[in-house]
Amino acid sequence: MRKKNKNQNLISVYLAFSVAFFILLCLGMWQLNKHYYKSNKKSLINTKLNEEPKNLNFFNLKISGAEVIKIKGEILENKSLFFEPRTQNGKIGYHKLIPIKVEEKYILVNRGFTIHKEKNKLSKNKTESIQGIIINFPKPKFFELKNNTNKNQWYTLKIEDISQYLKIKLEPFLIYEINSSSNKLINVKPNYLSEINHLNYAITWFMLAITLSFIFILFIRKLAYV
Q1: Rounded to whole angstroms, how far apart are CA atoms 84 and 96?
Q2: Residue partners of 29: CB distance under 8 A and separation at least 6
Q3: Most exposed among 8, 33, 183, 223, judged by the fewest C-beta atoms under 10 Å?
Q4: pLDDT tens-place string over residues 45-66
Q5: Domain coordinates of the chain in residue numbers?
């Protein structure tokens, strides 16, 4: 009877260890994959930033990753949107997004991070030349908050919500401005170019898996002498 209980305990411990070990390995591989993906993207963008930006006057193009471009159009300041909450160097604020009109087409531009919702209502729309990183419009993630368009509160980059609210048809691209002359805005980059160190996270998960393995081995040895 005692031996039977011992075997049952051993099976339970083994199953618990297997599940935990598998989850830790998956988390480590997930972070390692994100590190590899982000490193390739950053390397590609850094190379393109040192090159002459492409002049973009139309949107009949396909973008597989990201491109550094220069575009000239009418900035629709009166249609500014502020996405929250966003952080920059420990500060909480907003990303200011404004549509730009080029050849009767509209594309959204992330002009940067700000701690205040400031929209120049007295300023007329003006033509500007913008240099930035253009990407395909990102798809909302499952866990992101829904936008409250009735209260003009924005949390998620969902192109359908934005187009409907602004009453314009947006092209499926997003530009992150990199040459802003405003001292009230700090330029930002796409999420996959963020400074999050996924390699450190991957190492942490793998070390936890190794530590768990040592604990499991010690437990099994101790159980063998009981």
Answers
A1: 9
A2: 202
A3: 183
A4: 767 667 777 777 655 566 666 7
A5: 2-38+199-224, 57-193
